[in-house]
Each structure stands twice: as structure tokens, then as C-alpha cells.
């Protein structure tokens, strides 16, 4: 059984307290590893190492050398692609068809893209008139923010963690990662890659553990960190902002969603079905950008629903390494209970269950895993719990609509504002509707098409701030103005 340790100051270390917790494979609920649980001492050590590294070779390293090292990290992930793939799939149960196309390649790309992007970003300068006529020159320079706490979730563990670590390191910061307790493996493997690439000790640190009264809370309330970037549930974001308030830390939050898809009668039906299938069921519905509310214009409602049902019933649930598998399990027993409670609630609230609604029979060892059926409902009012609350499972409610104004109002009637998808072949309508949706990202005739140079983040309760491209630069650096009297 694998022993998973913290990675502090370039070394793998166990917990001072000796406390550990189980690493579970969600496809079987069998224990596959033992994880060391970090507390205050490990967080203190990691913060000390990260602060020292800022003053060491990393802090003094020429830009070109730093960027070259980040390319080596990306190459190191790609060189150990299969190990990362297996680690991610064992932790999450997700099919390798998904992780080999998204999680691992994007995990590597996050280091290259941000290293390349920041080599040539300009800053501003202004000439100022002065009474003596000689003037003054103002110019701004960017400095690393310092030590960044990266608190990440379990749904896309490597991808979402490196989406923060890549730009943070490219900007010259040092980081302490607190991966989700459900998915400790790839962050740990990344420690090995960092050492092999020659990243100096203390630049990248990993402390394992839970949130409250554990590594997550000790890290985010630590006075020695300079910024917190967090991806996870909205209520965890609220806890972190309270914990960090005493030290007035900058935060960047990517939080929950209840994302709509709006399907107009003039859509390309094949594309809309394919995209909606992915956005509802990819990663067993555990994608923050995923669709849980589908609004379909009435003339095509029946046909769309029938085709979505057929496609959902064609999904293959199975082991991560089976080439035929298109959907894995939910992450944990606890999350399965939560999702199933919504399946029950939907029926209690009077939903029509178009497909699914329960648990599948799985063979052999998979029988004990966290499997649920892909599920589609119709017939509920917009006020129903399953239409309002983030479920984070492989399910959606499909609702007919009659006009653009009506659907925009329904789509925006939520506390969240992360993502939306619009399906139409009418270009004017596409622009008009996209502009009116309350979402940080709107896809037209696509879903999860990501350009890492673009702003990413949520409106309303879906987040604070934007990352991606120069927007990550805004969070991971301090901009300083220098005024030179001439
Ligand atoms: P979570 O909030 O339960 O946990 C996320 C991380 O926070 C974990 O590492 C956890 O240990 C840590 N944590 C929990 N409580 C903490 C505390 N009090 N102090 C410090 N750290 C704490 O989220 P999850 O269940 O891992 O992920 C699913 C959620 O993440 C969903 O709500 C989903 O929408 C959201 N998400 C959002 C985005 C986005 O980009 N907006 C991306 C992925 C996931």
C-alpha cells in the first residue's frame, strides 16, 4: 500500500503527529494508500521553507532560467504521463479516456503556457509634467506576491492545482499546495518531478490533510502566506475568507455553479446533443462548469429530450482502465449519499424521471464503489431544490421555454454565475443571449473549449476575481510604480 507523505523543502516527510488517513479508490471503496495528515507543525515548516526559497536561488533566478525550469516540469509530467494517469484515475475513478485527454495534458500545459505568456507582458509608463519643466518618468514593475497557498479540490486534481501553481511559479512566487484529502496522489508525484527538473527546495511544497482543524485551515489562516487561491465549494470559500481576514490576505476564489444550457430550436441538434451530453455527464457530472439545468425551446423539446435520454442510456459505466468506459463513479461514499439524496428529493418534488434516478448494478469489486446512474428529470418548477442547488453529479433537469426573454430570466435566476452554454445557429441571437447571461464564461455551440489566455472565474457566488492569461498575472504579482524625477 502506497505511503503518501508531505513534500516540504524538496523532501518527502511524514507527519510530526504520526496521524494518517486512508486513500480510497472510489470505484471500489478499497483502501489503496495511507496519507500523512498535516497539522500546524507541517504548515509552519512549509511556510518557513517557502519564505526562505523566495530569498534563495529561486528569488534571484533570471527570468529565462525560471521559465526554462517550468518547461522542464511540463516535460517531466509528460515523460511520466502513464504514472500520472494511473495516480489520477486511482484517486478519482475517472476513465482514462478522459484523464488522458484533459487532466494530464492540461496539467503539463499549465506550466508551459504561463511560462511563455509572461515572458513578454509589458507594463505601463507615464511621463509627468513638473513645474521645473524637466518632468518625471513613472514606470511600473511587477514583483512576485510572495508565498501563495493553493487549496484545490478533487474533481480535476492535477489540472486545477497546476492551473494555479503554473502561473504562481512563472511569476516567481513560491507555493504551498493543500490538495483535496480525496486525491493526494498527483500533487505528491509532482514533487518528484519538481526535484528532477531542478526546481530549488521550498519553491513547491505539498501538505496533505483536511479542511477544518487540519492542514487547510492552518494554511489559510497562517500569517506567513501572502495570497490564497482556492477552488472548491462556495461555503468553503466563505470559511476561508473569514479565516484569512485577520491578516488581510488577497484571495482568488473559483467556487460552485448551477450552470444552464440554453438550446434554441435553430440549433444544430447533433452538436447540441453531443455538447450537452459532455457538459452534463463528463467526469460523472463533477465538473464545476458542467450543466445541471437544460432549457430547450418548445418546438424541439420532445426530440431533444428523447435523444438526450438515448445518449445517456448509452453511457458505459466501468473501470478506469477499460477502453469502453465513458463514466466513472462519484468521488466518495459521502458524495454519493448527497447526490442520491437529490435523486430522492426530485421524485418527492414531483419530477418525471426520464432516465436513471438510482444506482446501477456493477460487477465484481466495482459493486462496492460510488456508482450512480446518469439521470435526467423534467417537470419541476424553477423553485425546486434540484433546479436551484448545485448537485455535482451526473444529472440535469430539462425545461421547455417559449421566448428569449423568458429563458434568460430563468437561466439567471440563481445565486451562481460560473458558466453557460448557448446552442443556436443564429449568430445575432448567440451574441445577444450570451451578453445577457450572468456567467463568467459563456460557450456558444461548444462546451469546455478553453483558451488559457482568457479570463476565467465566476460572477455572484461562483467566485472572486479572474485567473487565466494576464488576469493570473494580476493576482500572482504586486504591481509597483517607480517615479523618477528627471
Ligand atoms: P471543498 O470546498 O469541499 O474542498 C476544496 C478544498 O478545500 C479541499 O482541499 C478541502 O480540504 C479544502 N477545505 C475544506 N474546508 C476548508 C477550510 N475550512 N479551510 C481551508 N481549506 C478547506 O470542494 P470539493 O468538494 O473538493 O470540490 C467540489 C466543489 O468545487 C464544487 O462546489 C465545485 O463547483 C467547485 N469547483 C469550482 C471550480 C471553479 O473553477 N469555479 C472548479 C472545480 C470545482
Topology of this structure?
Elements lengths: L1 E3 L1 E3 L2 E3 L6 E6 L4 E7 L3 H16 L1 H4 L2 H17 L1 H12 L3 H4 L3 H15 L7 E4 L7 E9 L2 E5 L5 H14 L3 E5 L6 H13 L6 E3 L8 H6 L6 E5 L2 H12 L4 E5 L4 E5 L5 H13 L9 E7 H16 L19 H16 L3 E4 L19 E4 L6 H4 L6 E7 L2 H9 L3 E2 L1 E5 L3 H10 L4 E4 L14 E2 L2 E2 L4 H8 E9 L1
Parallel strand pairs: 1-5, 8-9, 8-11, 9-10, 11-12, 13-14, 13-19, 14-17, 16-17, 19-20
Antiparallel strand pairs: 2-3, 4-5, 6-7, 7-23, 12-22, 15-16, 18-21
Helix pairs in contact: 3-6, 3-8, 6-7, 11-12
Can you describe this structure?
The chain is α/β, with parallel strands linked by helices and 486 residues long. The protein has 2 domains: 2-255 and 462-485, Aldehyde Dehydrogenase, Chain A, domain 1; 259-451, 3-Layer(aba) Sandwich (Aldehyde Dehydrogenase, Chain A, domain 2). The chain contains 17 helices and 23 strands. It has helices at 40-55, 57-60, 63-79, 81-92, 96-99, 103-117, 157-170, 185-197, 215-220, 234-245, 269-281, 298-313, 333-348, 385-388, 404-412, 427-436, 469-476, and strands at residues 2-4, 6-8, 11-13, 20-25, 30-36, 125-128, 136-144, 147-151, 174-178, 204-206, 227-231, 250-254, 259-263, 291-297, 352-355, 375-378, 395-401, 416-417, 419-423, 441-444, 459-460, 463-464, 477-485. The strands form 6 sheets. The chain has a 7-stranded mixed beta sheet, sandwiched between helices. Strands 10-9-8-11-12-22 form a 6-stranded mixed beta sheet, with helices on both faces. A 3-stranded mixed beta sheet has the order 1-5-4, with helices on one face. Helix 8 links the parallel strand 9 and strand 10 (204-206). Helix 3 runs antiparallel to helix 6 (103-117), helix 3 (63-79) packs across helix 8 (185-197) and helix 11 crosses helix 12. The longest helix is centred in the N-terminal third of the chain and has 17 residues, at 63-79. The protein starts with a strand and ends with a strand. The model has no long low-confidence stretch (mean pLDDT 97). Bound molecules: nicotinamide-adenine-dinucleotide. Residues 151-155, 160, 178, 180-181, 210-212, 216-217, 220, 231-233, 236, 239-240, 254-257, 288, 390, 392, 418, 458, 462-463 line the site of nicotinamide-adenine-dinucleotide.
Amino acid at each position: 500500500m502506497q505511503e503518501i507523505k508531505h513534500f516540504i523543502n524538496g523532501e518527502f516527510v511524514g507527519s510530526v503527529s504520526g496521524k494518517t488517513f486512508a486513500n480510497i479508490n472510489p470505484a471500489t471503496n478499497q483502501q489503496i494508500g495511507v496519507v500523512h495528515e498535516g497539522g500546524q507543525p507541517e504548515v509552519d515548516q512549509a511556510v518557513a521553507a517557502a519564505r526562505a526559497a523566495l530569498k534563495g536561488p529561486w528569488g534571484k533566478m533570471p527570468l529565462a532560467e525560471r521559465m526554462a525550469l517550468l518547461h522542464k516540469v511540463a516535460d517531466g509530467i509528460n515523460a511520466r504521463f502513464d504514472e500520472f494517469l494511473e495516480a489520477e484515475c486511482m484517486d478519482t475513478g475517472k476513465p482514462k479516456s478522459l484523464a488522458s485527454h484533459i487532466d494530464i495534458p492540461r496539467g503539463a500545459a499549465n506550466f508551459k503556457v504561463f511560462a511563455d505568456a509572461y515572458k513578454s507582458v509589458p507594463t505601463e509608463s507615464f511621463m509627468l509634467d513638473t513645474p521645473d519643466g524637466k518632468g518625471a518618468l513613472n514606470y511600473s514593475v511587477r514583483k512576485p506576491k510572495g508565498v501563495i497557498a493553493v487549496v484545490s479540490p478533487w474533481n480535476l486534481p492535477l489540472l486545477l492545482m497546476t492551473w494555479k501553481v503554473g502561473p504562481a511559479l512563472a511569476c516567481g512566487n513560491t507555493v504551498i499546495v493543500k490538495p483535496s484529502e480525496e486525491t493526494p496522489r498527483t500533487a505528491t508525484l509532482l514533487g518528484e518531478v519538481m526535484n528532477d527538473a531542478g526546481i530549488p527546495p521550498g519553491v513547491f511544497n505539498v501538505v496533505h490533510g483536511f479542511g477544518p482543524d487540519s492542514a487547510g485551515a492552518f494554511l489559510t489562516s497562517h500569517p506567513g502566506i501572502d495570497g490564497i487561491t482556492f477552488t472548491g465549494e462556495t461555503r468553503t470559500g466563505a470559511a476561508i475568507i473569514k479565516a484569512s481576514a485577520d491578516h488581510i490576505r488577497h484571495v482568488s476564489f473559483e467556487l460552485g455553479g448551477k450552470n444552464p444550457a440554453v438550446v434554441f430550436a435553430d440549433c444544430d441538434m447533433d452538436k447540441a446533443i453531443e455538447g450537452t451530453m459532455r457538459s452534463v455527464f463528463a467526469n460523472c457530472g463533477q465538473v464545476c462548469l458542467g450543466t445541471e439545468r437544460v432549457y430547450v425551446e418548445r418546438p424541439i423539446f420532445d426530440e431533444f429530450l428523447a435523444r438526450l435520454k438515448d445518449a445517456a442510456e448509452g453511457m458505459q459505466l466501468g473501470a478506469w482502465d477499460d477502453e469502453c468506459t465513458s463514466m466513472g463513479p462519484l468521488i466518495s461514499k459521502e458524495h454519493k449519499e448527497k447526490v442520491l439524496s437529490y435523486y430522492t428529493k426530485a421524485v418527492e418534488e414531483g419530477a418525471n424521471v426520464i432516465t436513471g434516478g438510482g444506482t446501477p448494478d456493477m460487477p465484481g469489486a466495482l459493486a462496492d464503489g460510488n456508482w450512480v446512474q446518469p439521470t435526467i428529470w423534467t417537470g419541476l418548477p424553477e423553485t425546486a431544490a434540484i433546479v436551484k442547488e448545485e448537485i455535482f453529479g451526473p444529472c440535469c433537469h430539462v425545461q421547455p421555454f417559449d421566448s428569449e426573454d423568458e429563458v434568460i430570466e430563468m437561466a439567471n435566476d440563481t445565486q451562481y454565475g460560473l458558466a453557460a452554454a448557448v446552442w443556436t445557429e443564429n449568430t445575432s441571437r448567440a451574441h445577444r443571449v450570451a451578453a445577457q447571461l450572468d456567467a463568467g464564461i459563456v460557450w456558444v455551440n461548444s462546451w469546455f473549449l478553453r483558451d488559457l489566455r482568457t479570463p476565467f472565474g465566476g460572477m455572484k457566488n461562483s467566485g472572486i476575481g479572474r485567473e487565466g492569461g494576464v488576469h493570473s498575472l494580476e493576482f500572482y504579482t504586486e504591481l509597483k510604480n517607480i517615479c523618477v524625477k528627471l
